[in-house]
Amino acid sequence: MNSPSAAPAPAIEFAARQARALLVHARLCAEYGAPFPFFSTKDPLSELVSALLSHRTKNAESHRAYQELRATLPTWEAVRDAPTEAVQYAIRACTWPEQKAPRIQAVLREISQRCGTDAPCALDFLAEMPIPEARAWLESISGVGPKTSAATLLFSTLRIPAMPVDSHHHRVAQRLGLIGPKVGEGPAHKLLEALLPPGWDAQQVYDHHEAFMFHGQKCCYFSAPACARCVVLDQCPFGQGRMQASKVA
Ligand code: SF4
């Protein structure tokens, strides 16, 4: 989302957006020190639950909620079958535990039914599918959107090159004109992924996502982006507009 004081970035044609995305990628990767080590070593089912916990929650809080859930109910079967209040209590460190607890249990039930197993299956079979099919399989579960499916595939031990777009990544991409001003986080996934070279491996896709996210956290803030010290100001219509406006004022 753009801050209210500057005009939204204008749309530019696909080839220009692609070139800009790659140039910005190179600059941000250099700025923040790519390649970035993968932060997670979770299996895909654990990563899926972790991603569900992380929605609109700070990393430290969702990590605490995940740890307590695992300590209280050590198997996903136990989480699925526990009283919902027990799951809700275990994950109370994250936002909206009253919504996330029943959602997580419903997701675990759905996966168990699809796999036809007593315990929810591990989801390792997703590695055998083409990426769009693996994403579609996950996103056909109620409560699983494109960010969660991509996080499950990329961050888990599967290391499949699917790209999540979080709020920082989305804001930076929008200000740079890589997506239109009205494109939401969900639809942004396909549009931004289309700008990446098709042969990129998981590390490259991960670096792209992390570099945009770090930029949103460390420079391109929501309400007062630090455009004057931004390494991609020359590529950013939104930032250039702000700089011009501050000279006029
Ligand atoms: S110039 Fe940089 S900090 Fe400013 S809006 Fe653009 S990307 Fe964000």
TrEMBL record:
Q: Which GO molecular function entries does the Swiss-Prot or TrEMBL record give? A: endonuclease activity
* A Pfam family annotated for this UniProt entry: HhH-GPD
SUPFAM superfamilies tied to this protein? DNA-glycosylase (SSF48150)
Q: Which domain of life is it from?
A: Bacteria
> Which keywords belong to this entry?
Endonuclease, Hydrolase, Nuclease
What SMART domains does its record include?
ENDO3c (SM00478)
Q: Which residues form the HhH-GPD domain?
A: 53-218
Q: Which PANTHER family match?
A: HYPOTHETICAL BASE EXCISION DNA REPAIR PROTEIN (EUROFUNG), PTHR47203
Query: What is the name attached to this protein's record?
Result: Endonuclease III
